Amino acid sequence: xVFAFAFDEPELVFYMYDDLGWMTTQFGIxxxxxxxxxxxxxxxxxxxxxxxxxxxxxITGLILNSLLYLGILLFSDFYMILAVxxxxxxxxxxxxxxxxxxxxxxTAEDHRGRVMGFKESxxxxxxxxxxxxxxxxxxxxxxxxxxxxxxxxxxxxAVMATVFxxxxxxxxxxxxxxxxxx
Length: 182
Known about the structure:
Elements: H1 2-19, H2 24-51, H3 54-74, H4 78-105, H5 112-137, H6 143-164, H7 171-180
C-alpha cells in the first residue's frame, strides 16, 4: 500500500493541476479528507481488528484503499474524487491497525520489536522506491497508466493476502513452536 501510494503521488499532483485544472485548495481538500478519514477511522477501526478475522479486514482495507486509484482513473469530477478519497481513507483506517495486530499475533513475544521494525522498514522502503520508480518511468507512461499500475498493485496485494495470510496459531502452540526451534 505504501509503495502504491508513493508510486502514484508525484504523478497525482501534476495530473490534478495540469490535466484536471484544479486549484491548490481542491487538491488540499482531497488529501485532507483522505487523511481525516484515515486518522478518525482508525479510532473506530482499531477495535474491529480485535473482533473480526484480521485477514478479512486486511483484504477489505486493501480493496477499499485501491478504490482511490480506480476512482482517479474513472472520474474527473472533484466531488466524486473527494468521495473516493474518503472511502480509500477508511480502507487505510481498517488496514493499518489490522495488519499491525496480525503481525503481533503471529510473532513470538520475544521477537515482536524486531518484527515490527522490519514491518516499518519495509513500509519506509516502499515510500522511497515508489517515487524513484515513477520518476524513472514517468516519461514512458501516461498518468492513466501510472494510476492503473497503482490500482493493480493494490489488487495484487489483496490477492496475495487472500492466498498467503494464514490463521495465527493459538498462544500455547506458538510458545511451543518457539521453544522447540531454540
